[in-house]
Structures are given as structure tokens and as C-alpha cells.
Known about the structure:
The structure is a single chain. The protein is an all-alpha fold. It contains five helices and no strands. It is globular, with a radius of gyration of 14 Å. The mean pLDDT is 84.
Amino acid sequence: ATPRRLLGPVEYLTVWHLQRTQRTALGAATFRSALSHLVALLNRSEGARTLYPQKLAADAQNELGGASTRATRKRLAAIAAAWRDGKSPDAVAQAALDTDDAPHPSGWVVRDL
């Protein structure tokens, strides 16, 4: 069997929102709401509140896994930073949406790898 990388719930939502999958696309509003609720749930555990943002930050720097695009890793880093800073679940979710890729000059064809 082919090895598969298992994603945690925050990573799964972020990949679903940003990357093409076999599932119907997850819109920004739905992503924000689901992420906010998920962070609120995870915040109920002191261990999860402390360790999960650290894991996301580490995942965001790991290009070798191959499961996440640059844009996904950038969003995970934004989520980790906002969460680690103690922001509210809504602010953590909004931080992921506020992270934009740098615009490219007109006429460029860009593929996010």
C-alpha cells in the first residue's frame, strides 16, 4: 500500500480550503467558521492549546512532507502564530484568511508547488 500522511483537524481544514482535493471546495466563510469552532474546542484542553500551535509552526516549516503547498504552510504558520499569541478563536481563524500571497505581475503564469 502507498504510505499516506495523516492530517490533524486544523491541517485538514486548511488543506481542504486551499488545495484541490476530490471534495467540493471549502469556501472562506465556512473555513473561517469551522476553524474558529475547532480552535475553541481545542482550547478546552491546556495541552492542546499549548502544543498544537507548536506542531502547526513546525509543520509550516517542513517542505519535505509534500502534503502541503507553500500557501497552505503559510496559512498554518499564521494560525500557529495567532493561536500561540493567545488570540480568540475568531481572530485565529481570521489570521489564516488575512494571509495573502504576494501578487504577481500581470501576465505571469504561477503554479503553487
